[in-house]
Amino acid sequence: MSSKKQLLKIVIPILLLVILALQINKRNTQLKLLKQKEQAILNANSNYAKLLSQRSIYRDSVYKIFVANFDGKKEIVFLKKGTLTNMQQESKFFVHLYPKNQKKLLGKANHNPINFDSNFTSFDYEGQLYHVAHTELPDYVIEKLNLGQYGFRGDNSINYKIQKLIIGTEIARVLKENKEEMNIFEYLQETF
Question: How much is the average pLDDT of 37-65?
Fold first, then answer.
């Protein structure tokens, strides 16, 4: 019995040292990858490259959509990886904002429309081309969003639209994860 105890006294510390060494190596690898990613974002030479390390509020096969702060402005950003079609480059985007306070409505509709030209700018990130179109958001609490893109060359039909309305509290949760909190989306504390 005592030889087993002695063996355990030798084996357990060795195992702990091996596990500790593996954990240190794993952590160092993670730190190296994080630094490489941060450097690649800096090399992209675009403020919008930071979005690549954040969670989008919506994504599908065409665009990833983000809400973020840029130079003190609250913006909604449509990001596309790869090439843009002529239709995507020349069609206007629409952002329908549903304010929480109905007194913030600008007209008779149940939403405030923000239409903007496809003002795409591009940047390179690790050999991949990314395009962003963006517009500033107003300074009132937004309950939900409807987003899309109108038809090609002045045609006001809709050629791209998100599948469902994006709820402001869901946006606020994503913004909190991204460390981009904004007072225009209400964050609801999760209770379990």
Answer: 88
